[in-house]
């Protein structure tokens, strides 16, 4: 029996708070959310009409794995993670709709910036560097090649756009204006720490994390900065197979590259409501699962079997 691809979910037993491009957030109580990841996929900031088989479960289980690894390696790290099991208030029927793809999390005030960290120069950063020698306006040493590592990982925040808008690159100074000086330095420091810890772990598992995006929230009772959202998935990061890595050329990544290439070739980049060919959706799913297996040491089926 094939597993259904789920792009829309309407749970009956909990109120829905909001929907993002990929996730639906339900309210469990005033401190707790049920964070439900669908199989929706976005590229160039628009959502495809059809989904990627099992993507919601892959992202949920991978994020949970990272919370465990990071918690072990970074003393005092706070995350929003509570449990992979839905609360008793969710009906059995609803439970079957969200199997493997839901997480109970602490509901927090979200800092409205994307904390991007780049370990290697690629994508828009490479394009900017070739023109101006800078990345997000920050001067870089001469002589970097495509996909070279930066001398040190770089914090390059962006705004967090409302649904339908595009994120905008900003300087760390502008980020400090948005979140306040009090929190900006702590967010930067934490983002760099989480990146370097994860990059080291991933390298031990055959993956280079070229760059990634984190989100942070504030625990208003304790004033703690908390790692929230999805973390270190192929949606939020560029993962490269370490065994094939070579400086001076583009890398074959574990993410939506197939989809982006196809959209560009078909002239469908950033168009609404595009339906991907089934083989493309399946190839993307297979690629995401490969990254999952390398990073967790388990197949997705094994991880789901443990729930
Ligand atoms: N612990 C949390 N409390 C409140 N909001 C959260 C928490 N973790 C993540 N979020 C928000 O939930 C949304 C996740 O849905 P997603 O589909 O990924 O959205 P987006 O389209 O913005 O990427 C994001 O807007 C994110 O900021
Ligand atoms: Mg998101």
Automatic annotation (TrEMBL):
Q: What is its EC number?
A: 6.3.2.6
List this protein's GO terms for biological process: 'de novo' IMP biosynthetic process; adenine biosynthetic process
Could you tell me the keywords of this UniProt record?
Answer: ATP-binding, Ligase, Nucleotide-binding, Purine biosynthesis
Q: Which SUPFAM superfamilies match?
A: SAICAR synthase-like (SSF56104)
Q: Which PROSITE patterns match?
A: SAICAR_SYNTHETASE_1, SAICAR_SYNTHETASE_2
Q: Where is the signal peptide?
A: none
Listed GO cellular component terms?
Answer: cytoplasm
Query: What name has this protein been given in UniProt?
Result: Phosphoribosylaminoimidazole-succinocarboxamide synthase
Origin species, per record, is: Neurospora crassa
Q: What is the lineage of its organism?
A: Eukaryota, Fungi, Dikarya, Ascomycota, Pezizomycotina
